[in-house]
């Protein structure tokens, strides 16, 4: 009877991998999950997408090494993107780590722990993709779960290391996704979040055609009523008319789309190795808004990419002010070794990057504040995440259909009746009566 402790860093796609690893370990000789200090096995699934993520990973490794030094009988395993990216050099850098396991070798963690000698690096297996039969223990709240429909990425953005770590896109079979969705519902899940690096390209690697609309139509027909389907993430050039019509016609698919643009200037987009026809992209987004009433559009912008002058940055500001995305995130360009962007001239100074980041977020805060104010008096679907709150028995916390877990805001719901039968995962129609820049308040019924 052995115990394990698990730390999961990075994105929701990483989280699914972590859930698979935990499921596999619990199917073996590990029976309980506990703290790193008390565990026989300490495992960490890592991220190294940008410098801040790498720093967080290394900080956690240092912390876990300190715990192992106090009890050398513990087994310490580092998994995921960090060992896949940095490979063989890590065993000498961190000799206390017993096993380094990459993004394709983690399904074999039980075999590695049982049959291999410590202080080894495993990053050589063929590309991996889980399916509905794979062991997996959900770590999210019981009413929502992530369902990974693709792995890897065929885009070659000049700033991004993901294709070199995760490989080319691999799409799952529609039958497998449908079966897993039904399994999740049987476990009590009410919100299924379809994820991948670019789910709009789902199916291209198998049939040569974009099949996300076909997948969504299948799920829309086969899943029971009262279920939310949320989509993360879509590149602008993967959105076609069939997909738009499918989302517009569905009562289950959340009218919320995350479409990362990264920038709006043709030269910067070209140097990013992304589609540089920003006018076409904005036309697609406007088509989405017209075709899907009540749509929440989220995007991500990057500031400080090489060659971004004041004039180019101001063009981004102008587009953000005029288009008024309901949701917008921003991050600062971080040079990554072995990516083409590091070789570009006219790198932007760190102080300038930070100032531009602050300006974008200030502008978006005002846009979000105005948008939320416009929602007052409207009735929106809300999923309950938590409640009733301590000492506030009539107050629940939730999210509107326009808010994804972890990245967007919350809504505080005052419940006037049926208080004793409500629980997390219930989907209600809530009337908005108060707003701030990032959160809302409402009344039910």
Helix content: 25-40%
Q: How are strands sequenced across the largest beta sheet? A: 2-1-3-4-5-6
Number of helical elements: 14
Number of strands: 19
Low-pLDDT stretches are none
User: Beta fraction of the residues?
Assistant: 15-25%
Report on the biggest sheet: 6 strands, parallel
Tell me the count of domains. Answer: 3
Description:
InterPro entries: Elp3/MiaA/NifB-like_rSAM, Methylthiotransferase, Methylthiotransferase_CS, Methylthiotransferase_N, Methylthiotransferase_N_sf, NA-bd_OB-fold, Ribosomal_uS12_MeSTrfase_RimO, rSAM. Keywords: 4Fe-4S, Cytoplasm, Iron, Iron-sulfur, Metal-binding, Ribonucleoprotein, Ribosomal protein, S-adenosyl-L-methionine, Transferase. One of its GO terms (biological process) is tRNA modification. Its cofactor is [4Fe-4S] cluster. Helix 10 links the parallel strand 11 (228-232) and strand 12. The longest helix is centred in the C-terminal third of the chain and has 25 residues, at 350-374. The model has no long low-confidence stretch (mean pLDDT 96). The chain has helices at 12-26, 51-70, 81-86, 90-93, 109-115, 162-166, 174-186, 204-207, 212-222, 241-249, 266-271, 278-291, 310-323, 350-374, and strands at 2-8, 30-33, 41-46, 75-80, 99-101, 120-122, 144-148, 150-151, 170-171, 191-195, 228-232, 253-258, 296-303, 327-332, 379-386, 395-400, 411-415, 427-435, 440-444. It has three domains: 2-122, Methylthiotransferase, N-terminal domain (Rossmann fold); 144-374, pyruvate-formate lyase- activating enzyme (Alpha-Beta Horseshoe); 379-444, Beta Barrel (OB fold (Dihydrolipoamide Acetyltransferase, E2P)). The strands form four sheets. It has a six-stranded parallel beta sheet with strand order 2-1-3-4-5-6, with helices on both faces. A six-stranded parallel beta sheet has the order 7-10-11-12-13-14. The radius of gyration is 23 Å and the shape is globular. The protein is of the alpha/beta class.
